[in-house]
Every structure is written in C-alpha cells, then in structure tokens.
Amino acid sequence: MHLTKPFCTLLLAVNLAACGNVVLPTVAQLANISPLEADPAGFEVLVDLPTGVSIRPQSAVLTLSAVHEMQSKEISGAYVLEQAPSDMGLRLFRIAPADLEQIREFQSIARAWESEDPDASHGSISVNVIACALGDGPASDAVFSLSLKTRTTGEFMPLIRNASVRDILDPGATSKQPIGVKQCG
Questions:
Q1: Other CB atoms closer than 10 Å to residue 115's CB: what's the count?
Q2: What is the total count of domains within the chain?
C-alpha cells in the first residue's frame, strides 16, 4: 500500500495551495513516518492565523481512505478535528478521543491489506481547514503558517510558512469581504 511509505500524502492533500511556502525539511521528515503505524493520538495540527481570520467551526477535518483493488474493498472515514486549548495563542486541532479507536481500526485493516498485496492496495490521508473572517477580516496581504505533530511526545514540525491566507479561504465567500472571506458564524 502506498500509504505506509510517505506521510507526504498528507502534505499533498492538506488542501492548501501554498506550495511555494512548504518547508522541505519537514516534508523529508514526514516521508519517514508511516500513517499506518503512527499513533493517531499524536496527530495534531497547529495553525497560526492573522488578525481577522479564524477557522470555520467543524471545518478542520482529517480524511482517511484505503482501497484493496483485488478484493474490491474500500474503507474511508472523515473525522472533525477538535480544537484544543493552546497556550501559544495559535489554533490547535487534534483527533477527538472518541475517534481514536475507529482510526486505529482503519489502520489495522489497511495494514492487513498492505501485507496481503501491497501492489493492489493504496490509500490517502488528508487534512482540510477552511478560514472565515472575524470583524473586518484580514489584511489583503495576510499570511498563515501550519505545523504538524505526528507523535504524542514529538515536536511540531513547520509544514507551511507565511502562505497567503487566500489559500484557506472559504470557497463560499461573499464579495463584501476585503479579500473574499466569508464571515464566521
């Protein structure tokens, strides 16, 4: 299964068009981490947003999928990440404790498929977040950064630095906002 190799699948599907702001050493570190082996309790996303921007409630979502082509089987799941307190003044998201066992079961099934026939199985992991405006919204040149943690005792790894906040804007934005950001709430 292609999912056990690079955790970079996560990078490709973070759904942030911030390619020029991707931190390549973090990509290299993620390439050595298997999302099928990593403890999901350690997955955390830290977002540094500018003034006037927040993450739309319930929009930080982790999506997992795996397919075994020879057996015509597919599993998938979408998990709303819970916002956790952060003493750093940043937005911290993690997998809800109630979802951990379901994700571990997903990992177990996907690992079994991979061990049976690695060429007939593949999968993906992605994180999606959607921004919304607070008050007058952000400045037109506002930027954000995103870091990941993949181990409960690990450190945050910067994945995206100083990317345009436009990359995470709500696609249902209205033209009344300064840079097309839909109001929160």
A1: 11
A2: 1
